[in-house]
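Budget justification note: compute hours in this period were largely spent on complex prediction jobs such as the one shown. Inputs:
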Amino acid sequence: MSRYAKPTSLDEALTLLGDASWRMLAGGTDFYPAQGTRPLTGNILDLNGLDALRGIADTASHVVIGARTTWTELLRHPLPPAFDALKQAAREVGSVQIQNMASIAGNLCNASPAADGVPPLIVLDAEVELRSIRGSRVLPLGDFILGNRKTALLSNELVTAIRVPKNSTHGTSAFVKLGARRYLVISIAMAAARIELAGDGSIASAAIAVGSCSAVAQRLAGLEAALVGQKPGPDIERAVAEADLAALTPIDDVRGTAEYRRAAAREIVLRALAQASAPSGQSVAA
Amino acid sequence: MNALGHAIGLTVNGQPVSAQVHPATRLSAVLRDSLGLTGTKIGCDAGDCGACTVLLDGEAVCACLVPAASAQGRSVRTVEGLGGDTLSALQAAFLSHGAAQCGICTPGLLVAATALLERNPKPDEAAVQDALGGVLCRCTGYRKIIAAVMDAWRFADGSPHDARLPGSGHAVGASPVRLDGIPKVTGGEKFGADSFPADALALLVVRSPHHHARFAFGDLAAYRRDTPGVAAVFTAADIPGVNCFGVIAPFADQPALAENLARFRGEAVALIAVEPGYVAAVDPAAFPVTWTELPHTLTPAEAQAPGRDLLHPSRAGNLLTAGSVSRGDPEGALAGSAFVASGRIETSYVEHAYIEPEAGFARMEGDTLVVTACTQAPYMDRDETAKVLGLAPDKVRIVPTATGGGFGSKLDVSLQPLIGLVALKTGRPAALAYTRTASMQSTTKRHPASMAASIGADAEGRVTGMVFDGDFNTGAYASWGPTVANRVPVHASGPYATPNYRATGRAIHTNGPISGAFRGFGVPQAAIMQETLYDELAEKSGLDRLEFRMKNALRNGSETVTGQHLASGVGIADCLEALKPAWTRALAEAEAFNASATLTRRGVGIASCWYGCGNTSLPNPSTIKLGLSPAGDVVLHQGAVDIGQGSNTVIAQIAADALGLPLAAVRLRGADTAMTPDAGKTSASRQTFVSGKAAEKAARALRESILRFANVSGGATLGLDGGTLVIAEGEATRRIELASLPADLDGLVFMAEETYDPPTTPLDENGQGSPYAVYGYGAQIAELEVDMRLGTVSLLKITAAHDVGRAINPLLAEGQIEGGIAQGIGMALMEEYIPGRTENLHDYLIPTIGDVPPVESILVEVPDPEGPFGAKGLGEHVLIPTAPAILNAIRHATGALVTKIPATPSRVLAAIRAKEAG
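Corresponding output:
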């Protein structure tokens, strides 16, 4: 007999998770497409009664994004410029209708290589907070998503929050998405970049991630290191042109060839960096 | 089944309501199935199309992605709640702008736009696009939707009053609000899935998961017995008639349910009839069928390889049929030409992607099977369904619902024989709405084409000859493959004088999806081949690309490649002339832009079209009946199915003026085969021309009979004063109380019925003859920018000049142009159906509201002597030039021609790199 439960407290939810195997239902934007028109079978844990998991809060050390926070709520919440990439991605997640329902944690748990939320969260050094009835643990986002549709989430665990360390909320950021149409499109490739400038205008630190070009979005550590000390402009262009992108392992699919993705990734990284280093209000088209 | 049923209480459109459902039931299903609010449409059940958009506490959401439990205690607003007793300002703006065509996406657009306007009453274009980016429309091209939303603030809430409703004698040429428009904006329109009887058996269709497979059923009796809710199962063995249908009788080859062998992925093999209330609990995946996969072919090259299995044993080499047109000495002409351009083009499967998946229900009324479903061709549905079910045609009645887009695919029967079979066998109503995936897998596509051609020109740039060869992947069954094979060779020259010519089109079977009719029947593919070579020839000839086309354009007195003498009405040169100012401006702007830009390059492209209206050299009659009712209505039996293109309005406009009574007096009676004569299929751009001509004839005949009855001359004027017909001639006025006259079985006191069949001649063995009575012409300019490092294409503007003969309704004509262009954009840049891979609307991309640039329509009117009031067809013409104009513009911008479409960013960048590599 399949069960349906809609807990209203986290403890209740964690208790339920401990005693059966469940499909999670949150924003529904992945649940229902996967469901199709097949009968509803298996146990469904409806997370939409967990009000505590919604909203964005500041702690002394972190900006904490509740797991059920929608993309629209994120867009409407005042956040420092380091979050601009995440907000730009938020506007590209599906459509307004999707952004109004889909949760940020759901985007991570779905673990699509093309998840728009992942690269901007990676450049914020985001961590994923997991809870079970036995306790909680925190994983860096890069350790949470293990592969295409694979995460480190255990069957008795719930993602309760995404946490961004305050140390990583400095600087400016940008997100560039490459798709074959304007709206409601799965990314061919995407890039997020966050940079902090030193007093002399050179790059003090950079965080760069590329999505849709590998099973899990990748940080480009080599390029990040090479950019330190460079000034925005031709120096950055040279560093990007020379960067080793071996971390990217794109595939051929209906949206583009691997060769194309490799070339496009370099270009959109450059554009994300240019946009992140541009005076605010300017954007660079993909 | 209802063990998990919960009472969900919510407020819908201000009223508290409740429903007993599983808490994870989709809100869209609650609204439609539990609450009867069918204005919220189901297009994909995956959040990809936005047709089910509703407001949940004021925020736009896809109701298909919202669990019923999340609506508990909250407020939901649907299209039915936007206006109440009157129309909202936005609804009125939609009607006024012609922003609704078929109307299936309209509720979702209206709801999403309402959320925007409540925050931002005067949005700019970008804000409208951002708000509506998640609602797909396949008919309109979005431009009139944008205009309507931006303009809504000018409209007041209130009752609709159409200030544009023309007076007597002025209907033709006017643009009244479409006569069937109001239900499209209120949510009241009933599409295929919107009027299922509550007691109907719900059907689930078991389909092949393989491209090619043998199959065998297990114990069906046990399955039926042991599966709760299953009332009956049906297979091919249950079909009482001939299990073989097809739109062209000599080629009929498709089973309604496959017999032992599935020839393509998605082919139906069995039906499960489920008791009402149980459908959500039955999983067709548990149906007892075993599959033995067989080798398959998906391309003509594979299918024609030696030793390949034949899909149909009588068709050697998997060749369905070939068509050719031959004239003069093309090889000699090419050999003697000053310039020759040669090339190859490949195109992909294109899915119609109407937002309404096929849907309908069937029931027995006495010994008559009544099928109520969406369609483009009610009489063809009737005859095919009767054949499969072993019934006489008059024992099948087709009642067309509103049709949420068709574009050619709803010409073929899909679910009609299936729902008919179950209703016939069980005696109970049977209902079925295809899922998006089933619709995409099992219904027809545009033919993928592999084409090669050479065109020659003399030193002055005059075309000397052309050779064209095209293989068209026709998929597993014939459908309209023969039509494509025959239409392409007739049209592959484009609207240009080509004295020496040979063109061959072959329709070749594969295990791919069935290719059938799709707006243009292969001509859009062929036009890409010809128009891209024309750019190359213009360059070689040293001529401006528009001038080169002008120089070669067909003129009055020209002969076509089939030897047809075109005495008058040839409007292609007029279209090209009309484009000259835009062409000059666009080239200058591109040159100026490119002088400084390197990262993006601007390009301008042009391409033309011509298209014969109606069947190719085959009978193609329409019959129209109309009359006066005792109440003083002009009752028009309007059998030309309106799938959004506007025939309900256009045919009425023609009839009103030919009769001499005001359009406001016309009442439409639908294309029900039990009531309304056969006006043929909505296909081949024939309804305005052929059914319009029949309507003109019938209305003139009705006028004649009234005048004769009143004993007045042809100069008399008619008027209606309630139920009184007022006939005036000079000083004399005669009043006839219509209710005093005897009414016929249709309730009409005056009646006329006329048939029109366009005069054509057969094509001889060389393809010579006069295949069409009327041709329409057009040309378009595409302006765009190409990102030279990403290969992305941004369209800036399309300027479209189309010779419509006479614009019966200019607003609807513009709507056809904008919608056709949007489909052309999709074909050029993003649409590629791959069976097994893109069977949904997030992997298969069609243009969104952000992908269609401003469109400037120029309606050219070169009257045709045959058409009603001089009118020509338009519906298919409009998408033919778009893709080649875009490819030519990309080439102009980058120097690189993309030869495999769609020209995705990946392909565009590869073409640029290949060009750079030399």
